[in-house]
Write a structure and sequence with these properties.
Order of helices and strands: HHHHHHHHHHHHHHHHHH
Mean pLDDT: 87
Structural class: mainly alpha
Number of strands: 0
Helix content: over 70%
Largest sheet: none
Strand content: under 5%
Length: about 400
């Protein structure tokens, strides 16, 4: 287990030690991953070989790893509504809220004690917004290439489609998150005020934001950035509150766990079997369409997944989870590229060769698992390759 100032070498660190004994590039696709690790002179993975963190912080490091797994799993679902279990899909979709919860925790724990707005925003521009622009350019090139060479569209049609895409504020489908989180960072003085407010005011504002979020749902196609800020604010505030009142949360841990289990089961049941709704709820903010049970479910999931993270400390796989946490933002940035590639390939195979996935339960679950492994570990390999080639400059490309 990782406790206090204890330092130990992870299995990634041991792999790095062994692989660096070899020279040159090993042959074979499976060796590429080890070569990227072993030949990393910039310390891409070596820096995570020996970890020195406090037990409380490592829980949230693991939660960040679980959050990126959650997000990629949600983007790996095959045969949505046609073979994949609806209740399971509703559990796996919408993992972004957990990411926001973690961001709120680290804002209070890391940035608030030494908060300087200018430095904070400059760092976020460098590590978040600039990589967003770079990867968006790659996404736009992929879109243009698909329209030109696969759909055989003329350049005027391609340029019109590119312009329409740019007007939404993002290119690759999960990247609506970046304008939203940048605006969230921009209003950090409000969050600083929130941290310093009296507890009664804090909890009243959290409750109000929770109710508002459950009623306004997500914006249509996630395009309205202000709508997204209002929707995800309770996740961010919950992260702040958990950091600020962590001892109180620990004292009432069992009661909170039971409450969250009840809320999650009820929310999944209401969404799946009463509303008969699959995935995230989207609508204009002031149009009445009932309660967003997905949002309610994910608020409970934040606490339950944190408990899972606490349990993971010192368990098999914890080192790998910590590794994914370190590169989580890079995975978030880059995995849509591989999703576009496989999505276009599947569409092309179905359209031109009549190849379609069977819509059975077994095929849906099995292919979704393969999709997850493909999206996650092709992205991990690309992240390590870019880090090795670019060194510290990779922050401008993928945020890590």
């Amino acid at each position: 287990m990782i406790r206090g100032d204890a330092v130990r070498m992870s299995w990634f660190g041991r792999i790095r030690h062994r692989v660096t004994q070899c020279k040159g590039i090993p042959r074979g696709g499976s060796c590429l991953f080890l070569w990227l690790i072993g030949n990393n002179r910039q310390g891409v993975v070596g820096r995570i070989g020996a970890v020195c963190v406090t037990k409380r912080i490592v829980e949230f490091d693991y939660l960040r790893g679980i959050a990126i797994i959650y997000i990629v799993l949600g983007h790996s679902i095959s045969n949505s509504g046609q073979g994949f279990p609806l209740w399971l899909e509703n559990l796996l979709r919408g993992g972004t809220g957990v990411f926001v919860f973690v961001s709120g925790f680290f804002f209070h724990r890391i940035f608030y004690p030494r908060f300087a707005y200018k430095d904070f925003m400059l760092k976020k521009l460098q590590n978040v917004f600039v990589p967003f622009l770079v990867v968006s350019m790659v996404g736009l090139l992929l879109q243009s290439g698909e329209l030109t060479f696969i759909h055989h569209k003329t350049w005027d049609v391609v340029l019109a489609a590119d312009w329409k895409t740019l007007q939404t504020g993002f290119v690759l489908f999960p990247h609506w998150y970046i304008p939203f989180i940048m605006l969230t960072f921009a209003v950090s003085p409000v969050h600083k005020w929130y941290i310093e407010a009296r507890p009664a005011i804090q909890w009243a504002l959290f409750a109000a934001s929770f109710i508002a979020s459950a009623l306004i749902h997500r914006g249509e196609e996630n395009i309205n950035v202000i709508h997204s800020v209002f929707y995800f604010t309770p996740f961010y505030l919950l992260g702040i509150l958990y950091s600020q009142y962590q001892d109180s949360f620990y004292r009432h841990n069992k009661s909170i766990q039971w409450l969250c289990w009840v809320v999650m089961i009820l929310a999944v049941y209401m969404q799946t079997y009463v509303d008969a709704h699959v995935g995230n709820y989207h609508k204009p903010a002031f149009e009445w369409r009932g309660v967003d049970w997905q949002m309610v479910q994910k608020m409970a999931a934040c606490i339950l997944l944190l408990e899972l993270s606490r349990w993971m400390v010192g368990k098999p796989g914890a080192d790998h989870l910590h590794f994914l946490a370190r590169i989580s933002f890079a995975i978030f940035f880059l995995h849509p590229i591989f999703a576009v590639i496989i999505g276009t390939t599947i569409w092309y195979a179905g359209t031109h060769y009549g190849v379609h996935l069977p819509q059975t339960l077994g095929w849906s679950l099995g292919f979704s698992l393969l999709m997850y492994l493909y999206l996650m570990y092709c992205t991990v390999a690309l992240v390590l390759l870019l880090k090795r080639c670019l060194g510290e400059r990779s922050r401008w490309v993928m945020g890590w």
